[in-house]
Fold this protein.
Amino acid sequence: MAKFTTLLALSVLAIQAVAFPQHQPLAGLTERELEDLLPRFKPVVPPPPPGPPKDTSVKLVNDKDHPYEPLRKGDIRGPCPGLNTLASHGYLPRNGVVTPAQIINAVQDGFGMDNELAILLAYSTMLTDGNVVTNLMSIGQKTPLTGPDPPAPAIVGGLNTHGTFEGDAGLTRADFFFGDNHSFNQTLFNEFVEFSNKFGGGVYNQTVAAEYRFFRIQQSTAENPTFTFVTPRFVTAYRESVFPFIFFVDGRKADGQLSMKDAFGFFNESRMPDGFHRADGSKTADLVGNASDAIFAAHPVQPGANAGKVNTYTPDPNSPTDDCGLYETFVNLMVKQYPNPQGVLRTNLNLNLGFFFQGFPGCTQLFPFGQ
Ligand code: HEM
Ligand SMILES: *[C@@H]1O[C@H](CO)[C@@H](O)[C@H](O)[C@H]1NC(C)=O
Ligand SMILES: *[C@@H]1O[C@H](CO)[C@@H](O)[C@H](O)[C@H]1NC(C)=O
Ligand SMILES: *[C@@H]1O[C@H](CO)[C@@H](O)[C@H](O)[C@H]1NC(C)=O
Ligand SMILES: *[C@@H]1O[C@H](CO)[C@@H](O)[C@H](O)[C@H]1NC(C)=O
Ligand SMILES: CC(=O)N[C@H]1CO[C@H](CO)[C@@H](O)[C@@H]1O
């Protein structure tokens, strides 16, 4: 089943400019601590992705082995309420520095996400935001805890990095243009609540998701001169809009109606409700695919961007909207950061590329660095 089937256009790929690495505060570490830490990072051979779990049943996941714990100094959280929550419940390392295999196991065990989507998300982000030599990635800001960076133009910026996976018109996160692109934003959450009141009778459901997704696109068009909504963001934005009423709703209920109290817990506090049960993992792939197609169909929009001024949204006919185009776009974004990799960097990029491709059955595999 296609993860996002609507096909508007595909052909030549739009290659986005990639920013050079920025020097960021080092996650609370002193220079001294850092000097001690860096030599300990060794290149690793990345293991293949875990397969689907044997047990996909609805079950208690906010359990005594996975209690919510508040952040400790230095713990990293980012733009994804799903991964933030898994880290705050110990399904992922609580410091927010993770491997792709940990992500796949965590989203399957904690939320019932399907294996193919988990692989797609884990490796697309690893290849564009992670350190493939140490096999570590930050779920938020750039951090020395992922080890020494490969040479520029590699970014290794973590999930906060704008233009790789993180993008504009998020549900509760502001656009990059307005500054903080990854923290919970109360103003936006208030809008989310307003739409849930207006179209969902006080809950977030598929009807609300369709309206709020469209509204956020219009809002960014009207307010953000640098608004960009091309693939991959174009595709991921529709998926993220449906995740809350599929994964944040208790699996025993599974009615696609998310309360504002529970939404606030996940989005702001990275916290599951007491007694929370995960969704039925055998159903979520279809649910996500169907719901993203439906909210897109409610208000079709073409991929595009503002042309440096507000209200100048210009469709980009070269931005692909199908699964294979999404795959190709990510591979090209990666190549921009690794124009000529050598040694272990090249070996590990190739291994990760092979794992990533497992998320796209039916597409043609690309070998940017040779076979
Ligand atoms: C499998 C690995 C995953 C990765 C690598 C990932 C990554 C991301 C990233 C980078 C964003 C920010 C996009 C943006 O708005 O700019 C995001 C947003 C989001 N993610 Fe995830 N995610 C994953 C799994 C999940 C899961 C399992 C859930 C739900 C349980 C989830 C729910 C969401 C939601 C609702 C948003 C939108 C947040 C907002 O705009 O307020 N994600 N994710
Ligand atoms: C929250 O988002 C709004 C709208 O995008 C923006 O104007 C505001 O500056 C953001 N607030 C913070 C604290 O980032
Ligand atoms: C969302 O909630 C509203 C209000 O109860 C309802 O009219 C609508 O049918 C619901 N949509 C879905 C898809 O459940
Ligand atoms: C979000 O949660 C944090 C930590 O639990 C809390 O300190 C903060 O006040 C909350 N933000 C809002 C806007 O309520
Ligand atoms: C998804 O859509 C297909 C095709 O319309 C349908 O057969 C299937 O039952 C739907 N699945 C879910 C879980 O809604
Ligand atoms: C890539 C990038 O520039 N991301 C920005 C996201 O927002 C934070 C501010 O909170 C910036 O520091 C990052 O640079």
Q: What stands out?
A: The pocket of protoporphyrin IX containing FE (ligand 1) is lined by residues 79-83, 103, 107, 111, 113, 118, 121-122, 125, 159, 165-167, 170-173, 240, 243-244, 247, 267 (CB under 6 Å).
